Amino acid sequence: MHQIEISPRSLCRIAGLLYLIIIVAGLGDEMFIRNALIASGDAAATAHNIAAAPFLWRLGIAGDLLMHLCDVPLMLILYILLKPVNKHLALLAMLFTFVQTSVLVATKLNAFTPLFLLGDAAYLHAFDAAQLQALSYVAIRADSHGFGFGLMFFGCTCLLEGYLIFRSGYLPKVIGVLMQLAGLCYLTNSFALILSPALAGALFPAILLPAFVGESSLCLWLLLKGVNTARWIERNAAA
Asked: N or C terminus of the chain: which is more exposed, having fewer CB within 10 Å?
């Protein structure tokens, strides 16, 4: 069987495109779907909004799952691009991303639960409207916390990838620093969500701004510039 060889520059373009899809899908869900349908602290209003626009809620879930589908080839490509620096750390970063993606896919079941609870199935007649609304809101909260748990593992990924990028010699050191800062922000946000919800609420969404800058910088660099091919080939041969 012939092995298909893809140049590192082409891998960068693919990785950048996948990363762009992930960022756009994530922002679109947060800004135009969740913010539009979820009324913070108001279970009744949130349930009314979702029941009035179930397809929009489903679209948000589909967008999240598209992100996680893109995660899989992206994590493989980043492993290939970064393993010349340190194969074991690149593998560890890929494993952290694998755990993150698994957690986030599993927690999407919580996001789907309100669609069941707010439907018109006969078995729901055992509950009154207020109970169904409260249970739907609890499921949404569980989905939000599951997302935070997943980002804990992704924070570790960012720390490792930032280190590898900084040491690579074929990607800008500043992007490595930004990715490590992103990792620290993700970890801070996730642990605050567990240990001090009030602090997490005060920090969010500002705590994730450095993460957005770091990931967007890496995404655009991969898409528009890529690696220094000669340097990557040299380090890969040495490795």
From this structure: N
The two structure tokens encoding residue 8? 């590192």
For residues 28 and 80, what is the distance between their CA atoms, to the nearest angstrom? 29
Provide the b/e sequence for 189-225 (b: ≥16 CB within 10 Å).
bbebbeeeeeebeebeeebbebbeebbebbbebbbee
**Domain parsing of the chain, residue ranges:** 8-238
* Residue 190 near residue 155, CB atoms below 8 Å: yes
Contact 50, 117 (CB under 8 A): no
CA 206 to centroid of chain Cα atoms: 17
Tell me whether residue 233 is exposed, middle or buried, using C-beta atoms within 10 angstroms of its C-beta: 0 to 12, 13 to 18, 19 or more.
middle
Residues 224, 227, 232: CA angle, nearest 5 degrees: 165
* Tens-digit pLDDT profile for residues 177-189: 999 999 999 999 9
Q: Could you tell me the maximum CA-CA distance found in the chain, to the nearest angstrom?
A: 67
